[in-house]
Structures
1.
Amino acid sequence: MLDLSLLVQYGPALLRGFGVTILCWGAGCLIGMVLGFALMLLRQLPVKPLRWVIRAYIEVIRGTPFLIQLFLLYSGGPAIGLRLEATTAGILGLGIYGSAYFAEIFRAGYQAVPKGQVEAALSLGMSYGAILRRVIVPAMLVSTIPPIVNMMAILTKETVVLSIITVPELMYEMQTMAAETFATFETILGMALFYWLLVEAVSRLGRRLEARVTRFLTHASPQGSSKTATARA
Amino acid sequence: MKFSVIIDAFPYLLGAAVTTIWVSLLGVLLGQVIGVVVCVARQSGGRVADMAGGVYVSFFRGVPLLIQLLLIYYMLPLIGIDVPPLVASIAALGLASGAYVSEIYRGALNAVPHGQSEAALALGFPGSSIWTRILLPQAFRISVPALVNELILLLKASSLISVVGVAELTRTSQTISASNYRPLEIYLAAGLIYLAINGALALFGTLVERRLQQA
């Protein structure tokens, strides 16, 4: 199996690669969520062409492979004057890819907020910004945490695709190591186990977060599917 | 932007798209078989089968597809099976898909009323035909939307098999854009073809769903 001296030799490179993986993942998730939230909000405006454009954007991103999007951004970008470094392109690509999915998640969450709550807030004289901040977003948080965590786990797995456009993240460093040591199979097996743990850890953390955010939910009956957030006051 | 580039490359891209489609279809077919077997084994095969199935599902859903693909690609020769990249790719897509499909069926089986299998048992159906004649057909009908979705996901995921050198749509676009230095146009065209295939699949899914609701 894996020669331990190899780990000592390649340890720093692998650690650096892991750092890049986490950086790409974190930044990609952040960009994806911010952009997705903005898209969701813009979609609520009563401007038809804007809605069509956003809808088309979401459909295109969700209907094409992530790898093609990356190639388009990284190799196709320079043709329109967009010269990006591999890591920047990777982060941007992950963010754009995630934004379409996050926009849909947020939209579902937005629609799940009971209308009466928004109307009540309006009749109390709250501004739209205040309603968004104090009524809609807290309620959305509760219903959208599970799909958000799921999406973040998916993006964790997508970071390995960045190695194809030579982003020096963990997968890339491991492939370099495999190529230099000829311990290809062991390296890939180790990598599989590592990512298995990583994705599992992200899901675990997500479940804990979910438990924390939904701790005010009251479950009236096992069948009661009315998921209204009721604060324990 | 030069559209003539796209027009010149289009026949090659279409040919490669056909490869993408049938590789994905074979992958989904394999995934169906594995998914059903794993699902049935987990439900009726005792604790060990359930645990083994659980590990399988967790592994293939937790590990990135690219790594699974490389693992299978490099593992098969090690145990003496020398297969072309195409076969390794289909095996990887099928194994990955099987994990998701078995979960889709598990969800669908939960939606089949308990009374159905109890009634079949009371009528004296043997265990195997309860599965093949009562439970699985109903589970299949319930899971059609999820299965079409799975096909779309797999078609997009099949772009990754370009890494092991299978000349499907992504790989072919790479080759073409490397020779004519027009990556923007070529990848745009490839993206549009993917989009068109996925659109057609989604439409097909809606039709099948409507059809099954009538029956």
2.
Amino acid sequence: MNLETLLFVTAGGLVLGALYALMATGLAVVWTTLGIFNFAHGAFIAAGAYIAWQISSADASGLGYLAGALGSVVGMFVVGVICYALLVKPFERQPNLVLLSVITTLAGATILESGIDIVWGARSKQLSRIAEGDVSLFGVTISANEAALLVFVIVILIVLGVFLRRAPAGRAMRAVAQNRESAQLMGLDVPKLYAIAFGLSASLAALAGIFLGSIRFMSPTMGTDPLMKALIVVIFGGVARFTSPIFAAFIVGLIEAFATFYAGLYWAPAVLFAIMIAVLIVKPEGLFGKYERTVQ
Amino acid sequence: MSGALLEVRDLAGGYEPVQIFQNVSLTMSSDTSIGLFGPNGHGKTTFLRTLSGIIDPWRGDIVFQGQQLNRPGERGSRRFRNFNYDAVTRRRMNPKLVARAGLIHVPQGNLLFPEMTVEETLSVAPAASAGRGRPKDMLEQVHTLFPRVYERRHHKIRFLSGGERQMVAIGVGLMAAPKLLILDEPTLGLSPKLRHELSAAIRTIKATGVPLIVVDQDVEFLQTLIDTLYLFDHGSISRKIERAEMPSHQEIMAMLFGETAR
């Protein structure tokens, strides 16, 4: 393997990693705040992509790329809040919330995917690219679309990280995640913060959907496979810090790219799972995990 | 409107289906502080959690500064309580509104937010102050009261000692510009030295004009702080003792256990 191939595969891995980072962070926001795993996240990705397509595509409303992205992000925030109110809020204080929410969010995912199928049909669609042409850097040529995607994801994640660390609402969200009762006693609006967390996660899913829709074909179940990868990322990296799923996402992306190159496309998931199992045997709380969020 | 700061009428509550306390009535005015004293496991903490809206009261009313904090009326019938409480039954109290009204509860053994720094925790706290007081002044007050909190402001809560954590917890309460501060066993499990330090701080807080409800096992400490002592046992207030006739620890033991402790 020469240097050029190595760089090429690495670039592919980084792009994959950026996508996974976006999805895994969306999952992690809900997981760390509400303590549940949102199985509807994949459907959120698909719904976000379809909303963006509906607004931006020349075959539909044709309002342009930016309007599509913006409409999708805002729209998915609302969808996320509604899903929270219907799927999670009624069970919030049940002792078996984790199990209940698995079923309710799976149900939500099925309903959303079927809804997309009914509204837009099963025919594959594609979103327009962010940028056309190619970019060359250090002797590797990747499409400008993928380069833009990489940059956008990093910017979005930095903004999100700063929001969670510095903004009052972000700090309040972290507070609620760590001790619900103390947060209540401090006068924080817990249901509102939960709703914001869910909406934010759905908005991140929408962004992931927009990016995914520009590099692959869209279908109502387009989110299922990336959701599984994001799941691996979250478990692989742990959620002790905001950054741990992000690092894990890039590692998973790189592993996948190299596994695809060496072992072939069909073996890549198997290699990924094998590595994940090996990591979890040695370090059950995840690669970067320090403590595990215990389930009450 | 009566001059009472807090009026609790015939309050009852517990954790479904177990009732923990009943028939609790008390009134306090804004220039007094009260203490609750009683054996462990007799419902003091549950009563305070009901007062701040963490759990719903079963019966009775809580009136704070002339404003009724609970939704009036009886709680739902048993048939509806047996369904999913959050979906079928309306909550009778909202802890957010309680805190924003100025009734601030510093819970027992407060764990706060383990992964947040002291500074971040204190910056979240003014949410409950609802415009009363400037956060900057409050922060200064907390820092002068507990210099240790200032020293450790960049450390995560989980690296603090129990005493430091308790200081932060009280500081969080102060940041909310309380009109009534509830301290549930503020000196629980602390060394005598820290106990002494915290007691002094709590007396300073009282001197700034914040009324207190204090639960503690140390009657001598309570005596220096409060005007009325309520004995709380078997889930209700069994006796009300004014400051003048406040008994010693020995006498209280005798009252509670029916015989003179040796």
3.
Amino acid sequence: MPKKLQTQSSIALSQSTNDMKGAGVKILRKKYRDPQHLHPVVNTIISVLLGILAIMCIFPFFYVIIISFTSEESIVRNGFQLFPKDWSIDAYHYLWGMKAQFFRSYGVTIFITIVGTIISVFMITFYAYAISRPQFKYRRFFTFLAFFTMLFSGGLVPTYIVVTQFLGLKNTIWALILPLAMNAFYIIIMRTFFLKSVSESILESARIDGASEWRIFFQIIFPLSLPGIATIALFSTLGYWNDWFTALLYIDEPNLVPLQSLLMKIEANLEFMRQNMDVAIMQSSLFDTIPQESAKMAMVVIATLPIAVSYPFFQKYFISGLTIGGVKE
Amino acid sequence: MKKRLMLLLVLVLTIGTILSACSGKENASSEKEGKDGQPYEIKWYTIGTPQKDTAKVFEEVNKYLKEEINATVKMTQIDWGDWAQKSQVMINSGEPFDIIFTNGTDYVQNSQKGAFLAIDELLNKEGKDLKEAIDPALLEGIKIDGKVYGVPTNKEAARQTVYTFNKGLVDKYNFDISKVQRLEDLEPMLKVIKENEPSITPMATFKAYLPYDYVFNNEMPFAFPIDGDREHVINQFESDLAMQTYKTMHNYYKAGYLKEDAATSKDSWPMDVENWFVRMGDSQPYADSLWSRAAKYDVVSVPAEEPTTFNDSVSGSIQAISATSKNPEKAMEFLNLLNTDPYLRNLVDKGIEGVHYEKNEDGTIKDLPARIERYNLPTYSLGNHFILNLYENDPKDKWEKFKEFNESAKPAPTLGFHFNSDPVRSELASITNISKEFYPALATGSVDPEEYLPKYNKKLEEAGIEKVLKEIQKQFDEWKSKQK
């Protein structure tokens, strides 16, 4: 195979040199300038490498889908297989059986993702905008305040005390939204973005035209900073969608459990069963309701699909947004 | 556009504030109620997957409790897998609650830390009936520095490790399993199975058993011999028995009786898949029939040791009263009733008669579908087993057999001794790491003990095992002298 590739590419090489001879120096120069133009061998190598990388990224998910369609019996006997002996859709049947909890959790996740992202974007942009404007007298102090929490955090127990005893959020939907709404790192990213992308003179002209601060923010800053805002919105969406830990800490009510937390619970319960076989066997009827490997994978498929499907729509913002944090003036 | 956005934002934030304020008030008012003659609400956290009918059942429970002890109970279940982390955060944050399920080392550590209330006095007053109902060995076994920090569940107090066989295969090849006592005795059977049953793994992955009383657990090198010198702690990995057992295990491994990934595998070998011949487990009376029912084919067990009462077998399930409880007396009154009143105990465990279970004429019960689907509670974590109704397919003398089993057990050397590991914390940390590295490989026979056991012991020595052994011996002697 590699030999064949080599001969092919060498043919291509000789052809291109022939072309160049015919077409003259002009084309050569043009091609030289073209950053996309690579030596065919290099091109092949890079393509293959990137291809392997892409397969490495996609393969686990592909595997998960296959396992979700494998029969449980086959998993226990033969382990995970790429081409299982018995196919089955039992796992999806099982999920359909717990559809009440499942749809409820889906609803909770969608709700906290949408509401959470909105709240989070506003809180972060408000804060970041304020500390990005030189007119704001205490901006150094508030920048430091945000920055400080990136270096030192209160830790798990104090956070828990604040949320449950001081704010009384335990077993409310806000316990899933508010603890994740503010993020110091995103504030710093947005501050840099505002400083870089919005020049003072635009704001000045708006002020001269008599715009209020609110109007400036919503009609000038907001549209101008859309790529940056879309980036942190995407980050928080992912954060809310994938969050299970806050639910573990603050939620006891089954009807407030988000999807990822449901998934983690199942995983953790399986782990508990493995470590406590004596309890598991004595209380076997209890654990009959805990899904096995294939059902777990089916849940992963269903929980991941929406975010995987919506990702391409965000992608263009995402890429432009990623370069923001790195540049400093 | 701008106005709408603003409105939305303001709305969302105000709702948030109002909601949080509301729930804050609720807490405050319920505390007060307890004090002026109103029923006190007991907050009870226990393990298990939250059930759909909990509220319905506890309405009944509360009706009864209001009459009996002027209190109500709010039971919250925390899912199996979440339990360890969540209960720890709750305890560390000093959250106010009354009763919490606990077991094993969690119980010891939290008691030593002062998170649980010492209940000796409460047991003499509010918990008088309970104290009589519970096996004294249990109460004695969970004492820490002479004090009881929780109400143990009255069930099997002893542990007996057994070898369990797949009965279909035993009958097929006519094996005589009654003579099996040690690991070596399995050899001829394993060989036959390996040669004739290609779809069966002869040994479901287990760690070879060494008959000692462990200060921490079976992978840490601190143990008291159960037979012989019961007064001195040793490193069990230096004993001849360990070498011999692990050699046998290594031979089995080389012969292919175990899966190749035995040392690292997390496979739980579910009973209902018939792909094994012998396995190891902890037994209790009538365990075989229980297991056979779960597996849907017959299994049969032979004991690998005499029933013995260990620290971890008595602390398998404990209800502790939190140090943050506002009304420990009421909590104890409730626990007292839960462990002595058959009506309440069965109601909490099995649900409402006619809804979740049916009673037959002879007093035995039968689960209705609602119990499995909507109120499936773990029996072991709730309270006294001996006042529970029997199922129709349970043997009539089930609880008598349990009592016999408990009485036949002899106490382990360290029963009631709980080591305080503070003075040797750093040594223990490195010993734990070393053990995690060596123990699984050795105990599953994956490596040659001739080479690795000495290596293991040498590393343990370097990590300061001598100091820890001395400290354990010192604390043990102090504890022992107080006993007399």
